[in-house]
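[Q] Does anyone have a clean structure-token version of this?
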Amino acid sequence: MFGIGMPELIIILVIILIIFGAAKLPEIGKSLGRSIKEFKKAAKDDENKKDTKGPDSPKR
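[A] Here you go.
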């Protein structure tokens, strides 16, 4: 995907754990999940608007 393997992911997770602490991780996960859900919903709504709207200007 981004050239990130399992060792790199583990290092990133350890750094996040050190910075935020174990108590904050569930809260961060929930907010990240909500953000991704809202982003996908907005992208889908935008795509649906483009499909129903039609062309913006006539072709010449």
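[Q] Thanks! Anything notable?
[A] The mean pLDDT is 83.
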